């Protein structure tokens, strides 16, 4: 296996990248507006740090491709991350360019599942289980106003929802995969996996429909209704001759 080529970074760290490049490229009206927000102290926001660090690393990697690199960086990475950061319902919800930082968002509320509900893995991973991942990373990163709102919902007992368990477990596993790649890895994790999954989980019509961060879990949803298909309507590929080896 060939080792990745080492190259010096143009910017020494993410703060230099934001200060000397990103804020000049993405000039927006964020002073007297409610449709685009920005926090001058972006480094106080876990999500902003994670996204902008991933964005810087992706830029340092893709700039090595003189033909398509920066175009890919803009379309596949920067535009998607900046849309989330500039979103007035995103991590800078209560901050403003005029008045500065306001620490009003908190990590997503959580209740710890019963012992033994989730098995820990022994692989070379940062978090040994999806519970550790949600408690120590995801809830800290995706801080949202989920208490006094109807457009973003969250269940502190997410582990009581089959869909949430399946989505968050897959999100944890793919995060462990991408974190080892460097380059564009964590940026891809955000835009291709975390953002779509979290959009579904935060949706007030989704799996947390009747739950709330304030009042907790309500078990009011049930599996989709289903009836048995006709006998012989579906066959096992192993029973069909052309599929046999």
From TrEMBL:
InterPro entries: DUF4913 (IPR032584)
Residue span of region Disordered: 221-245
Name this protein carries in UniProt: DUF4913 domain-containing protein
UniProt organism field: Nocardia jiangxiensis
């Amino acid at each position: 296996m060939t080792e990745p080529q080492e190259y010096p970074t143009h910017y020494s760290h993410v703060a230099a990248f934001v200060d000397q490049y990103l804020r000049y490229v993405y000039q927006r009206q964020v002073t007297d507006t409610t449709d685009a927000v920005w926090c001058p102290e972006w480094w106080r926001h876990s999500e902003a740090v994670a996204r902008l660090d991933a964005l810087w690393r992706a830029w340092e990697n893709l700039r090595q491709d003189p033909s398509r690199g920066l175009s890919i960086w803009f379309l596949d990475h920067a535009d998607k991350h900046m849309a989330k950061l500039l979103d007035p319902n995103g991590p800078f919800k209560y901050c403003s360019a005029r008045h500065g930082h306001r620490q009003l968002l908190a990590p997503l509320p959580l209740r710890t599942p019963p012992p033994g509900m989730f098995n820990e893995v022994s692989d070379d991973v940062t978090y040994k289980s999806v519970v550790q991942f949600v408690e120590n990373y995801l809830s800290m990163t995706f801080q949202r106003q989920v208490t006094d709102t109807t457009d973003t919902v969250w269940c502190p007992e997410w582990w009581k929802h089959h869909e949430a368990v399946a989505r968050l477990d897959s999100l944890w596993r793919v995060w462990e995969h991408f974190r080892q790649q460097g380059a564009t890895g964590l940026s891809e994790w955000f835009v291709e996996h975390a953002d779509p999954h979290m959009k579904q989980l935060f949706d007030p019509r989704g799996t947390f429909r009747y739950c709330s961060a304030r009042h907790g879990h309500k078990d009011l949803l049930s599996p989709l209704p289903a009836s048995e298909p006709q006998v012989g309507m579906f066959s096992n590929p192993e029973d069909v001759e052309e599929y046999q080896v």
